[in-house]
Amino acid sequence: MAAPEGQWVLMATGRSPTNIAVIKYWGKRDEALILPVNDSISVTLDPGHLSATTTVAVSPSFPSDRMWLNGKEISLSGGRFQSCLREIRKRACEFEDEKKGIKIKKEDWEKLHVHIASYNNFPTAAGLASSAAGFACLVFTLGKLMNVKEDYGELSSIARQGSGSACRSLYGGFVKWCMGKKDDGSDSLAVQLADETHWNDLVIIIAVVSSKQKETSSTSGMRDTVETSPLLQYRAQTVVPSRVLKMEEAIKNQDFESFAKLTCADSNQFHAVCLDTSPPIFYMNDTSHRIISLVEKWNQSEGTPQVAYTFDAGPNAVLIARNRKTAAVLLQKLLYYFPPQDKDLSR
Amino acid sequence: MAAPEGQWVLMATGRSPTNIAVIKYWGKRDEALILPVNDSISVTLDPGHLSATTTVAVSPSFPSDRMWLNGKEISLSGGRFQSCLREIRKRACEFEDEKKGIKIKKEDWEKLHVHIASYNNFPTAAGLASSAAGFACLVFTLGKLMNVKEDYGELSSIARQGSGSACRSLYGGFVKWCMGKKDDGSDSLAVQLADETHWNDLVIIIAVVSSKQKETSSTSGMRDTVETSPLLQYRAQTVVPSRVLKMEEAIKNQDFESFAKLTCADSNQFHAVCLDTSPPIFYMNDTSHRIISLVEKWNQSEGTPQVAYTFDAGPNAVLIARNRKTAAVLLQKLLYYFPPQDKDLSR
Lengths: 347, 347
Hints:
The structure is a homodimer of 347-residue chains.
Chain A lengths: L9 E8 L1 E5 L4 E3 L4 E2 L3 E5 L6 E9 L6 E4 L2 E3 L4 H12 L4 E3 L4 E3 L8 E8 L9 H16 L6 H9 L13 E4 L12 E5 L8 E5 L10 H11 L3 H21 L3 H20 L10 H17 L4 E5 L5 E5 L2 H14 L10
Parallel strand pairs in A: 7-11
Antiparallel strand pairs in A: 1-6, 2-5, 3-4, 5-12, 6-11, 7-8, 9-10, 12-13, 14-16, 15-16
């Protein structure tokens, strides 16, 4: 039965995993378009674990665009949401569902309002890339709803305008965000280096040191770093380009030793430029430092890396074990040195 | 009455304060001669507070060189002690005390052995520059005993071979260690920028966060940084030279705003290159970070810096207040936010 005129609701649901950078993105050359100062490389997590699930609905009965995050309404007035909505609407295509009596012409999408409900199955804004998963999912699901035909590369460039690292969550596996050269940002997008079946041995363990929201948001933190750190441009222009090439090689060859050394060094250098910012930004705490020491000592005693660590804009450790056996030993060590009653690990 | 042949003991005592770098020394270009990768600038503390007191004695009855640090005998076999002893002996001059019947000819000094007793009135190897005060005092006191005629600049170059930053403790006030250019290190010495009467308003408060000995010694830490940090050379060659010029200006003009900004930024950049080292070096802890946040927020709320902070190779904060009134407020704040029962401040 066809829906009464103006009463229908059309919905789409999508899920996007978060991604963890192994060569870090820190610093924009264009704030509005979200264009980075260097390339970055990430691993996309299994969507069954840390991910955002978003349902978008459209209906002639909706008087305005609205959004709920984890059940709480949030404002869509920010430039980042508006950019994503505008860019997806621009690319919307005709849609018809004869059974339901729904027909939306290309030009209709501009007038139809959306309701968006998004859930993260992990702490928000605690340095676990919740905005990456969130914006990737928003763009992907809106694209699905609005019958957008563009490929993931193009969608990644739209997601980038919501949250830079979101562009890397459009693909699974290993993903590179090419900084691009153009002023309009059209070449600043994600490419898949290897899909999720490549290097299946790796196991990622996230040690949640604190699920509190961070004091310094990534956006304002990286702006301060760009403006005040004398070391950032050297990192972006001289250190990162060669690291990106080495990391691509390491991933291609499943060379865990190089992968781990580059991952740890780049995490530490990202936190170094945060410290070189005025006023300094601290994302890691004493517990983070203890986790690093544990891993470094272990790797040293084995003669070759067993585990890589990387920390985003928060104290939580992302630990990448070379295989399942190592991951099991890592978990034992974590439980031994950071017993669950420890306040630092309580949530 | 003349001493019986071979029974006399000749002694000298000296005291040297520690110094606190405001433009940091981190990294050697020559490990044996202790030649740094950049100039550094420090403030010498009042000798009444953090200082080393050393008594050196010489006697024909001493069969070997020996040394006691804080009452415990330590080995003098290290290259650093040997360099200082050799360089001072080389410059020793004839000494005569007719009353005591002592006559030491220039060439006799090579054969006479010394006993050295040194005390620090503050924690050793806790990142409070104990070795700077210690070696400055050793060289100064040995020079006094052995009637060395060289000026402080030359003595500073000898003290440098004991511990790099020791060269800066030969002078009071504001001191610059010029890295020098020569391979033999003869131009790598300290010069006084302003004496201890200049800029008398400043008050230095040291917040001892931990008096434990540090895990990573400065010597091995800076070697690792030189070998593994991609950012260090850029800091040494590009960032520090311009900071040194600005810091000299700030000191000359008693411009506290510039002084404080440069001091804090350079402390943070030193810890940034430590973090950029593989494996990373952490000297500051959560308490250090809280102290920095307290100072940064206060400075921001006042619109202009009231206090500068700087951290050496340990978690202890060196706080420089612009005047006595500010220092009093700073102490109140420290006592309020870090009450004495707090375990972090216990010794």
